[in-house]
Amino acid sequence: MTRSAGLLRLASLSILVSAIAPARGFSQPRCELNLAGTWQAERAGETSPFLYRFGSDASVAILSRSGPEPAPWHEVGHGTYTLDDPKAPKVIDLETSVEAGAVPRGRTSMTITAFGDTSFTSAGPGPTPTRWARVETDRHFIVLAGRRGRFYEGGGPAFAMLIRMAGQQTTVDAVGIDEAGGRPVFGAIPERTFRQFLQEPREASDVMLRLSISSAQYQRGLKILRTWDRRARERALLYPDVFMDNILLVKQVTEDLNRCGESVKLYTLDWGVEDDISEHNRPSNIPFAYFKELRRLNESRHVRDRDMPAAPPSAKSTPPDGKD
Known about the structure:
Elements: H1 3-24, E1 37-43, E2 46-54, E3 59-65, E4 73-83, E5 91-96, E6 106-115, E7 119-123, E8 130-134, E9 139-147, E10 158-166, E11 169-180, E12 183-188, H2 191-194, E13 206-213, H3 215-233, H4 242-255, H5 276-280, H6 286-297, E14 316-317
Parallel strand pairs: 11-14
Antiparallel strand pairs: 1-2, 1-8, 2-3, 3-4, 4-5, 5-6, 6-7, 7-8, 9-10, 9-13, 10-11, 11-12
Helix pairs in contact: 3-4
């Protein structure tokens, strides 16, 4: 693609995106503190023997082991919490039935001094700050996969895939460009295609980057994939060229990984003067080249087959309505 053609496409795309961004949530979101989940506190280098399970209904359960590790965790107290503003959190108010490490019994107010996807730091009660770390019970991964040489202009299937491993169940969601009758089709990727990229490909015509991500990154990415899947099913894609829609998808899902701080090295895909990928590739080939460059930039972060947790023999994908 020539630079002038690319800039023309980008100009049209920018106008379209700016027009629909407020209504469809395409604007760049800011980091939010999502307390839902299980957390463990550390103060002055000492880790609390309690876990704090915050619910989405403003409840909190306090857990303790029934004996030395690996004794199971059980509930020893409960309470409620209030977070003033997830988008710009400053204060957490707690009311609990027991004293549990960093949290005294009764009402407590803590000031949030820093936060991200997997941790936050609070001040009070007492002079020493407390660092809270999210306890991940499941494993989550994002896979960026592409293949070239399948379409007449040299492109091929290219998609983003999210994997959740929870106990004996593996769930896969994948959205992007697939091949049907030798033609490109945008939408949910069927198992026959995504299964080929559950393990590292061996062909030079394939590319794959697999990264371990947090539950918060997974949930945000899943929302993005399901939004694009819904648009495809409702024939409400943002761009008449499905290859451009796919570029928007892969940009959105990869750039969102760094919403709360850099966890992956990104390439700036913007048709600007330093964007060689857009300069030297057709839109159908851009995701492949983008994934290949991201693999180069994040080689040390790539999760190889030998480092993947053992998975059950079958992996299911969630249905279009998002219920599993």
